[in-house]
Amino acid sequence: MAHEVEHRTLARYLEDNQLKHTKQREAILDVFLEVSGHITSEDLYQRVRDSHPQIGHTTVYRTMKLLCEAGLAHEHNFDGTTRYEIAHEHHDHLVCTRCGKIIEFECEMIESAQEKIAARYDFRVLRHRHELYGHCGKCQEELAT
Amino acid sequence: MAHEVEHRTLARYLEDNQLKHTKQREAILDVFLEVSGHITSEDLYQRVRDSHPQIGHTTVYRTMKLLCEAGLAHEHNFDGTTRYEIAHEHHDHLVCTRCGKIIEFECEMIESAQEKIAARYDFRVLRHRHELYGHCGKCQEELAT
DNA sequence: ATAGATGCAAATGTTTTGCAGGAAA
DNA sequence: TTTCCTGCAAAACATTTGCATCTAT
After folding, report:
1. In angstroms, how far is C14 C1' from B41 CA?
2. Do A80 and A105 fall within a single domain?
3. What is the pLDDT of residues B94-124, one digit of tens each?
4. Which residue range forms the structural domain that includes residue B97?
5. How is B63-127 classified by DSSP, letter by letter?
6. CATH number, domain at A41?
7. B9 pLDDT exceeds 90?
8. How much is the pTM?
9. In Å, how far from its chain's centre is CA B115?
């Protein structure tokens, strides 16, 4: 079994919460980690069925919610459809709308400005999304010709 | 009729596109401008029915799409629910995930930091989305009790 | 043995679509 | 009178829930 660290994290979470360690949960976690992108519940369900045809969609939903609670996955709602991504350090995105290239960035200055904004409105920030859409350098050159 | 400028803008859009000027479209635009917040389709539908009980939900959806095309409204998807807001200058959002309150903010510092990031990656930003999710002051108090 | 998990089917909630009748041009 | 619009009902999706059954502990 690949992704041993994540499976151990799941096991610990299940034990800590008196939840049960089932084949379905293992299988879904494995497929989720394998695809390693932003995946919808439906896509995940289809892929899980390739190797485990008896697993239902309901279980995929319930397991993904569990993985989010265990800190292994993040849920992201993009244009009305929920997508899951593997949890990792926070970052934001530059998205090229022409070639689809995605660049990750982090910015201390923006993070601290966010804190100031939140304080001004007496708001406690739990998470955020920040995406810049536009054209990458290569696409700018290609458009200039 | 209040909001004459917007109604004239709608009228022009309809004429320019050989679309028809109906009571329903007027009524929905009026209610939308009156509430002047971030409103869901369902909320809008309920309010429209107070004064125009015969108008259907379908027409609300279709009209809001039209208002977006006419540049009078903007559609936003916050955590899976679509909300409409009156089109105006760019701003970002603080979204309370407990009570649903939405606060708009603008921040020069963040805008200029975005420009620096973009320059660093040789990226030309055309638009962006920036949302901070968390708890508003009132909800923080309620949670503390 | 028993608390918890599963999978089906049905319910829910949101948005879209087909269609026949109705209104604006 | 022709084209577009409306409202209903039904469809289309995405997600959740009730429940009887099964399984890990």
Report:
1. 9
2. no
3. 988 888 888 999 888 888 899 999 999 999 9
4. 92-144
5. HHHHHHHTTSEEEEEETTEEEEEE--S--EEEEETTT--EEEE--HHHHHHHHHHHHHTT-EEEE
6. 1.10.10.10
7. yes
8. 0.78
9. 26
Do B11 and B74 lie in one domain? The reply is: yes
For chain A, the domain total comes to 2
Cβ of residue B53 lies below 7 Å from strand D: no
Strand C nucleotides below 7 A of a protein CB? 3-9, 14-18, 23-25
The protein residue nearest C23 (Cα–C1') is: B22
- The protein residue nearest nucleotide C5, judged by CA to C1', is A20
Q: What is the CATH number of the domain that holds B126?
A: 3.30.1490.190
What confidence tens digit (pLDDT) does each residue in A116-134 have? 999 999 999 988 888 888 8
Distance (Å) from the C-alpha of residue A4 to the closest C-alpha of chain B? 32
Confidence category of residue A1, pLDDT binned at 50, 70, 90? low
Q: A82 and A32 share a domain?
A: yes
Between A9-18, B39-48, B124-133, the lowest mean confidence (pLDDT) is in B124-133
Band of the pLDDT at A100, cuts 50, 70, 90?
low
B69 Cβ contact partners less than 8 Å away, ≥ 6 residues apart: B13
Amino acid at A13: Y
Q: Are residues B79 and B108 in the same domain?
A: no
Question: Do B80 and B74 touch, CB atoms closer than 8 A?
Answer: no
In this structure, the answer to whether residues A68 and A96 fall within a common structural domain is no
**Strand D contact at CB of residue A112, distance < 7 A:** no
